[in-house]
Each structure stands twice: as structure tokens, then as C-alpha cells.
Task: structure prediction
Amino acid sequence: MTDGDAAEAEAAPRIEADGDADVSARAKPLPRQLPIVRDESNLIPARMVNEVLYCERLMYLERVQGEWGENEFTVDGQGVHRKVNEEGKPLRQTGEATADDERREKDDSEPYVARSVWLSSEKLGITAKLDLVEVDGGAVVPVEYKRGSKPDMPEGAYLPELAQVCAQVLLLREHGYSCDHGEIYYAKDRRRVPIAINDSLIARTLEAVVRIRELCAEGVLPPPLDDSPKCNGCSLVGICLPDETRALANVPVDVPDVDDDPVFELGEDPWGLGGGLERPVRRLFPARDDKLPVYVQAQGAMVRLDGERLIVQSSGETAKETRLSNTSHLALFGNVHVTTPVIRRLMDRGIPLLFFTYGGWFTGQTTSHDSKNVELRLAQYAATQDKNRCLVLARGFVASKILNCRTLLRRNHVNPDPVALSELKHLTRKARHADNIETLLGIEGTAARRYFGEFAGMLKGDAIEAFDLDGRNRRPPRDPINALLSFCYSLLAKEVSMAVRAVGLDGMLGFYHQPHFGRPSLALDLMEEFRPVLADSTVIGALNNGVIQSSDFIRAAGSVALTQPARKRLILNFERRMDQLVTHPVFDYRISYRRVLEVQARLLSRLLLGEIAHYPEFRVR
Ligand code: SF4
Result:
């Protein structure tokens, strides 16, 4: 749940901290208490052998932290395996007696194929589900199905796949079968390739098993591969952020003082990363999400499921149909009904379901189980108990927010007041050096009053006459601009809450905002620097472009609210802003603002896990 209101953040009690804060918020290693693998038997799946030889970080992210990502290759691979895992005969044990000896003799002499054969060996410490095993007389051959084509190499496959097949062969031998080689079926070529099993491959396979146990026992996420082409096809690339993590891991712990930083005036990163990266950071994930959100505002509307489509019905008629595969999230305002099958399917697909009051108050979200990344949440809980680390992060959130407010004024104000700009810069500097959270709270409040005092100067054309803003007010908003701001902050809180949840962080526990019943403190922390960039700019654009007019408001008992049609137009404008491409100020690649939120949340997780020393605040140029 959230208040979704900028001034709420200004007034909210914060986590107390005092004393000098260490300039680095880097995590200290946590005591190792987690199980080394999720399989209670402690056996290593052959698939893990493949993963660790491909990339140790990939194995750790998937198997220890429970991360999972899909891309075209994983979806394709699942399709290939669905076919091969269709029902087939079970693998008969060696020497297994059937109904009578005569039939057994006949059975053993006829070739057959067993599918989805699950074998384990305590001695080898390995377990595997074999796609297919061909049995002919006394000999068996495991066949591993792979999407794609055979690589152009004499071994018939890369080492990770060779070792995976080798593990299967070892398991079959351990269970008494005669097995001298394995095979890989390449689905794209429709071609089977024999895999020779020699001593060298066996040694590499068993070494990989040992290495997996070492990595799990160490409990430290291995570093990303260095500029590797493997990352291009990795489904975890958006989670791992290999180039970004490497770039930030090299940043010195000491941050230059604002006064010494020539680019600070422009709001660029204070560490000079933007122009000083050792090499360009590759954008290895899509620049924007192709899926679209669905908002339902009509009171009494019903959302139900029809196959793979969401159907929104209002007043007995179908108002909207959308495919689940095209839906990023479903947001419901007020009295909207949703069927249990819809909720279950959304949870199955990892599509967030978000609830708002009729007035636009963001009240919470429904998703499937929390992330399996327990390590990350433990690191977050530990960090929030460290007052200095909280202060370091809080300083950055507030300083960047003030700086972004200042940039918005510089860009949009008809005649920006140099005194106001100077004061905001001064307050940014004070925020950067605040001794404690209470002081920071006061600085933020002063900056907000100065900024909102200049806000009306960013209006143009008819909006100048039609709208006025006398400072920020809320609960309820008493003028149209405050009503618009409150609604957009609520939408922004929803976006950041989704990003935080997707990363696996606990949204209720922040560093700047005090835990409070129903308050998504971490989302409020992270959204500080984005309030001017995403919410305020949406409001200014909607007013200056005539999207919202003075007739779009309902005034009652001293409060002001948007009409439903106007809210729809504002949501559209906000969504356009979220989808807009922007150059990331640190990494210098272009991604949508929605992706930026996800990247920032992921980088916060990298900080909490000790991989990077600083949270790279997002400052617009
Ligand atoms: S993106 Fe690269 S470094 Fe990260 S897990 Fe994948 S292969 Fe490994």
C-alpha cells in the first residue's frame, strides 16, 4: 500500500541516523546460513553442471538466489522439451523381472525408448532427468534435446553440453547399464550428434560438481563475465547487469565533493562515470517492454478470463479485450470485480494485479510468491539496521530529487529565477552533507517549498490563466494542480513498487522512509529522484498541451478531484512518459523510463549484496 503523494514523503517520519556516515554504502558479507542447494538430497542436477561451465554467476543466480528470466531461447527450449517429455515407456531396471521369464526374454530383446528418466546417485552426488534413453539389447544411449543447431566443432557440442551428457552417462553406468556414449539432438537441424565420453571429459564433469559445491558453500555471487559474448544470449542478463555491475564495481569509494565536480552543475553523475567508463556499457536487454498495462476505472466493471484473453465487461457489454501475453499489469480503480481464474492466471504468469481506491490511492498489489532471493532480502534487512548506510542512501535520494527539480525548472520555467536555482543547488549540497536524517528531512522540505513556489512558472499558453498553484497541498488536494500531482505520484508509486517487487526486495522496508503500517517505504525512497522527472513533467505536459483543462475537475467541500475521462487522458500521458526512451546518465545507452526504474532497483540490489560501492542516482541532464 502507499500514500502515493509527494508531500506525504516530505512529512513522513524517517529512519533515524546520526553521526558521520561512511561515504560507501557497500554491504559487508553476511554470515553464511543458507542451504547450499535447494534440493534437500544435496545432489547436484546435471543441468547445473552445464550452467556452471557456461557461467558461474548464472549458476549461482539461478540455483542459489532463485532468479529466473525468460528469453526467446528459453521459451524455444521449453517447447522442444515439452515434445520429448511426452509420455513413453519407463526405463526398466537392469535384470528387472517381468510377469514371466518368457516375456522378459522377449522384452529385453526388443529395442524401446524411455522418456523423462530420473536417475540419482549418492556416490556421484549427481541427479538428472534424462530427456530420452534408447535401449537396444544390453546397451543404452541417453539423448539430450537442445534447441538450435549443431556448433561447427569436432566434439559436436560446447563443453557445458558435453559435460551434461557425460553426467547422464555416468548416472546410467552407476545404475548398472552399459553405456559407452551419449547423443545430442539439435532440434533446429533435426540432427543427432554422438558425444564421446573419455577420461578427460569425465574429469571436467566431476570437477564441475566439486566447483558447484564450493561456490554454494562460499555464498558469494561470482563476478560477471568480462565483456563476454555469452551474455548476449543469457536469459538472466537483465537481472545480472554484467557490464553495469563491472563498471560500477571499479568506482572508487570516495565520492568527489560537489564543489570539486565540474559536471555537477549539469546534474551529471558525480563520479564522472558517464564520460569516464573504461569501455562502453553494452545494453544487452530490450530498450523497452512491448507489453501494455490495462487500467480499469469503470465502477461495477468485471474482469474475467476467456482462454488466453482478459475480458473487461462494463454495463453488460465487453468494453475491452486483451491478450494475457500482451499485458504487463492490470490496475483496478475502486469497485471493479475480478474473477478468481483471472487472479490465478495473472499470478501464474507473473503479471502484477494492482489495486487503487476510486480516488486514485494506490492500496497494494497481488503477485505470486515473493522472490526466492532470500540472500537479497537478508542483505536488505541488515542494511536497514545500519544507520550510516541508511544515511548515505537517503542523502543520495534527496540530493538527486532536488537536483532533478532544479533541472526541470531550468528546462521549463519561462523565466527561471537565478536565486531559486542557486538556492536549490545550495540545498543539494547541504543534502549531500547532512549529518542525520532529521536534518535531511528539513532540507527536503525547504527545497520542496522553493520548488513548488516556482512551479506555476512552468505553465504556458492558456494554462497560465486557467491554473494556479499556491504551494503543495494534499489529503485532499485543494486545487487542480495538486490533484494532478497526487494522482501522478500514486501512479509512480505503483511503478516503483512493481520494480522493487520484481527485483525481490521488500518494498515495505526503506532506508529513508520509516517503516509504517501500509507504507511502501522502499518504493517511496526510490521514487524520490523520479518525482520531478516522471510525475511533475507529466502534469506540466498535460496542462501545457491542453490535455487537461479547468473543466476536468470536480470541486466539493474544499477538495478537488479529476473527472474519470480526464483521469484516463492523464493515465495515457503518464504511460507515454514511462515508455519514452531516455539516455541513462551513467551508462549512456537509451532505454525507456520504465526500464530505468527496473535497472535502478537492480543496482540497489547489487549495492546491498556488496558488488558495487555506490547507488548510481538517476539525475537528468
Ligand atoms: S549475463 Fe553474462 S555474466 Fe551474467 S549470468 Fe549471464 S552469462 Fe553470466
Summary: The chain has 21 helices and 18 strands. The longest strand covers residues 126-136. The mean pLDDT is 84.
